[in-house]
């Protein structure tokens, strides 16, 4: 038994390590959508989103992983034919041992959370949720039967038609539990109209990640386009230099051009667009927030954007080059916000506008002249 488990050791460790990390990354689009819909995000919604993704990734991962570390050795020594006898689990319940019964119960329990979430959070009707659970089980079993659709040389897990029945039963039971639970614990959705002017740290980070995604896509497209145009237009002198019209350059120009593209992309998405829209970048527009928490004009607004651009620009550069100092700067901002409840650039004072003069109208009354006839 130990020797059999050791065949899966490396891939199991990899799956176990990447599981929460991948789930966290995949949760970000859901958080962005919640901000877009409700303008705010509660801790309950955030935990719910992460748990849902964690379950979904775990469902897909641990029904396929771990894979044997040595495919040739495993496929040579093991053969798992598909189990196509429907309702074969009934004799297992009647005459099988405790292990068979526990396996059936685990197949049911594995899909209980799916049914619960499809009712409680997705608000799906039962005629959509239950077939969806069945479809997920069919996909999982078919993936096992085909060795991850041909990526693996053999079926390292057994295809069992009864698993689809027990999984679907689990999804249906979970849907029923979600229905009963919601009757006693109704959901409360809080939506805040308008633009959030005092966003929290997570709201800021979700918006920032959206902006960085735009920056990164622009950087990739434009930098590769620049490099392609350079090699199309420049003539190789075969001595490490290139002739570009009257100019004599080397390959360092491609690196400088890529850096220039990154700088321009950052200035567009993190400086120009927010400054033109009162602190609302593309990410901030989607999540309905502004990072200009005060009314600023003149030199105070310039100073605000200078400080923010330096810090966010450093964070962007560190993220682009994959430097470990990225996490140090990010952790500093997190700790700073926890204690100060604001970001460093928010300390730039707002502009105090003079109050407009009050107009007092003086109404002069003229004496009424009476005439006697």
From TrEMBL:
Coiled coil: none annotated. InterPro entries: Teicoplanin_resist-assoc (IPR053150), VanZ-like (IPR006976). It holds the Pfam family VanZ. The keyword Transmembrane helix applies. The chain crosses the membrane at residues 12-35, 47-67, 101-119, 126-152, 164-184, 205-231, 257-277, 298-318, 324-340. Keywords: Membrane, Transmembrane, Transmembrane helix. Residues 53-179 form the VanZ-like domain. This is VanZ-like protein.
């Amino acid at each position: 038994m130990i020797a059999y488990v050791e065949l899966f050791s490396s891939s199991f460790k990899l799956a176990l390590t990447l599981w929460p990390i991948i789930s966290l990354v995949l949760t970000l689009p859901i958080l962005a959508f919640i901000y877009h819909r409700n303008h705010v995000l509660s801790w309950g919604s955030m935990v719910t989103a992460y748990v849902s993704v964690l379950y979904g990734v775990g469902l897909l991962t641990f029904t396929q992983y771990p894979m044997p570390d040595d495919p040739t050795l495993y496929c040579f020594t093991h053969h798992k034919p598909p189990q196509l006898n429907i309702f074969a689990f009934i004799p297992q319940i009647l005459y099988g041992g405790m292990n068979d019964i526990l396996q059936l119960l685990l197949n049911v329990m594995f899909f209980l959370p799916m049914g619960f979430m499809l009712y409680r959070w997705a608000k799906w009707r039962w005629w959509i949720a239950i077939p969806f659970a069945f479809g997920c089980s069919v996909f999982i079993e078919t993936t096992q039967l085909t060795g991850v659709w041909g990526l693996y040389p053999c079926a390292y897990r057994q295809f069992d038609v009864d698993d689809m029945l027990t999984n679907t039963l689990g999804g249906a039971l979970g849907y029923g539990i979600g229905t009963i639970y919601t009757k006693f614990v109704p959901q409360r959705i809080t939506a805040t109209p308008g633009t959030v002017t005092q966003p929290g740290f997570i709201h800021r980070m979700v918006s920032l990640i959206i902006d960085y995604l735009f920056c990164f896509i622009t950087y990739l497209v434009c930098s590769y386009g620049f490099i392609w145009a350079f090699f199309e237009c420049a003539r190789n002198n075969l001595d490490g230099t290139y002739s570009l019209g009257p100019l004599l350059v080397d390959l360092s120009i491609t690196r400088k051009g890529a850096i220039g593209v990154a700088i321009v992309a950052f200035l567009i998405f993190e400086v120009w667009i927010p400054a033109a829209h009162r602190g609302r970048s593309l990410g901030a527009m989607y999540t309905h927030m502004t990072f200009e928490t005060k009314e600023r004009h003149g030199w105070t607004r310039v100073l605000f954007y200078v400080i923010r651009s330096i810090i966010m620009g450093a964070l962007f550069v560190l993220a682009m080059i994959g430097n470990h100092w990225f996490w140090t700067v990010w952790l500093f901002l997190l700790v700073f916000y926890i204690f100060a409840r604001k970001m460093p650039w928010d300390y730039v004072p707002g502009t105090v506008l003079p109050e407009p003069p009050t107009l007092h109208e003086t109404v002069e009354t003229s004496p009424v002249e009476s005439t006697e006839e």
